[in-house]
């Protein structure tokens, strides 16, 4: 198949959010800690009416309706998520409920899990299937999303909820550049979910931040090496990438991630004119630069204008929804496409950096080869973000307490108000004595 990649994208996020300025006041932290320190404006959340199965169904059914695609056209469905309900039973199998009416049960793919990286692995699988001898001519669907929630404390404002749905096939407007990939994986306990009695992760915040930056170093460098060896580009650098979309735990981390790529460019080519102001960092070893705030600030400064043109427009969803774990990097792509006219994107290279704690990370890229205007219109991101309902921090906390109390509940009927859900949203009706879940749709 030719030009395999992304044919269409849509995103789902809940109708309610908490304002980060109000949350700062409510939590009694200094003004600006969440809004400037983390770079976040709003955080989406859901109550006990929504779980990973319901948000995935909402995303997929909404996608099929908006793009007018038939379930019988799908030959592969991959889910990337780290929000786990039935453990051995995948979210993919729950989504097969939506296929019943079409009679299509011949659908490959299951869930892929490693923190925020599962969606990227799912996308690679889907693209590789279409590119392989196993492909039967049908399309693939990738679902990437999570409910990101943290216990009370410093990590809580870095939560969020969202699911992206991505259609993969040949002759795609966003063609995956198959051989151009750099990956970094290692064993690290920065963020994981060993406590099955809680929805919250066990997280070492500072370690996760360093790990993210280390992963940028290695995955980006490996990507540049591919640009050189496979694409034949001499002295590859950010100049060869038109747009760079990042996994965003909060947008400040993306600013740092971009600056780190610039730092890596500097290490590869310290004599370049652009780096005249940062020569004092030439002799610091990369491995010894983690946590060096002076270096970090200097490269944030040097990278400001390039960040504004290559990355800023990909942050609309992340800033206003929060972290969606596996969905985050695709909400970034959706933000970029919905904010940039096709005339500007046409022919350009869009690179993605995906990071999942634990850790697994890749830098890879797409080439824009077809019209993206219909995708932009369908996502309609800014208008949809504006239509949401603001909830006071005290009420948000009550919802978090409710989720905590009812985690793993049996014979349970949710109490959340379904009238605040957007039309087309699936919601949890009941969990029975065997933890089987039943859903309705607004
Ligand atoms: N005004 C402006 N900036 C402020 C203010 C203020 N009033 N108060 C603090 N800040 C700044 C700090 O200077 C710091 O800036 P820096 O990053 O440039 O040094 C930033 O806000 C963060 O503040 P800290 O005190 O360093 O950290 P905090 O205790 O708020 O915790 C953390 C932040 C660790 C990210 C926490 O939110 C967390 O654990 N989140 C979950 C883990 C996570 O998201 N990791 C990222 C990668 S892994 C993943 O995706 C899950």
Task: Note down, in words, how this protein is organized.
By secondary structure, this protein is α/β, with parallel strands linked by helices. The protein has a single domain (5-441), classed as Thiolase/Chalcone synthase (Peroxisomal Thiolase, Chain A, domain 1, 3-Layer(aba) Sandwich). The chain is built from 15 helices and 16 strands. The chain has helices at residues 20-27, 33-37, 52-66, 91-95, 118-130, 205-229, 251-268, 293-302, 304-310, 316-321, 328-339, 342-345, 373-379, 381-386, 393-406, and strands at 5-12, 16-19, 42-45, 74-80, 111-112, 139-148, 160-169, 174-185, 191-192, 202-203, 243-246, 349-356, 360-368, 389-390, 426-431, 437-441. The strands form four sheets. Strands 5-4-6-7-1-8-13-12-11 form a nine-stranded mixed beta sheet, sandwiched between helices. Strand 4 (74-80), helix 4 and strand 5 (111-112) form a beta-alpha-beta unit. Helix 6 packs across helix 7 (251-268). It is globular and about 65 Å long. The protein starts with a strand and ends with a strand. The relative contact order is 0.19. The model has no long low-confidence stretch (mean pLDDT 97).
